[in-house]
Write a structure and sequence with these properties.
The protein is α+β, with helices and mostly antiparallel strands and 196 residues long. It has a single domain, classed as Maf protein (Alpha-Beta Complex), CATH 3.90.950.10. 33% of the residues lie in helices and 24% in strands. The chain is built from five helices and eight strands. Strands 1, 2, 3, 4, 5, 6, 7 and 8 form an eight-stranded mixed β-sheet that branches. The longest helix has 16 residues. The protein starts with a strand and ends with a helix.
């Protein structure tokens, strides 16, 4: 069975990717830095989602020479001129995500400019070193209060308009089909079936 290296130490993200792969018929042995007893991490100093995804993928590809997939994702809020964007994980770094969500709601309490999107860019490096990119986006808006307990990160404040519910309310069944990460990963799956 072919191996696929997921260049992430985020257990939620790894579980999500593994589930989506399984649901879409990708039969690969998945591994990650923790399973390889690797404690090194790259410095994510890119200026775009694509650059950061490549930095992560290339770092681990050079270490293990396995087909490697990495993603960089974030929430882009209109009120913050597209921020925090690539800095989503480092935004308000002293706070956990629950408190980050509270702070964003507080910062936006007096505005109706609530548009936002989740963006995910995946970088895949094949065993032969070829590089390709896949991007998925989800359009929505920022809630006025947190809702839902499934999902992680900014899910409790990101509302999907057609359901008028947050991603945390819609839960993992929804996310595994329709999230920004699912959309990017499904594009990779369609392409990868020709390459794997």
């Amino acid at each position: 069975m072919k191996k696929l290296f997921i260049a992430s130490n985020n257990a939620h993200k790894i579980d999500e990717i593994e589930t989506i792969l399984r649901q879409n018929g990708v039969d690969m042995e998945v591994t990650c830095p923790k399973e390889m007893d690797c404690h090194e991490e790259p410095e994510e100093n890119g200026q775009t989602f694509e650059e950061n995804a490549y930095i992560k993928a290339k770092f681990y590809y050079d270490l293990f020479h396995l087909p490697t997939i990495a993603d960089d994702s974030g929430i882009c809020i209109d009120y913050f001129n597209g921020g925090p964007g690539i800095y989503s994980a480092r935004f308000l770094a002293e706070l956990d995500y629950d408190k980050k969500c509270d702070r964003i709601i507080e910062m936006m309490k007096d505005t109706d400019d609530r548009g936002a999107q989740f963006v995910d860019c995946m970088c895949f490096i094949e065993e032969n070193g070829n590089v390709s990119y896949y991007t998925g986006t989800n359009e929505g808006f920022i809630a006025r209060e947190k809702a839902g307990h499934e999902g992680f990160g900014y899910d409790p404040i990101f509302v999907i308009p057609e359901y008028n519910k947050t991603e945390a309310e819609l839960g993992m069944v929804y996310k595994n089909e329709h999230s920004h990460r699912a959309k990017a990963l499904k594009k990779w799956i369609l392409d990868a079936k020709e390459k794997l």
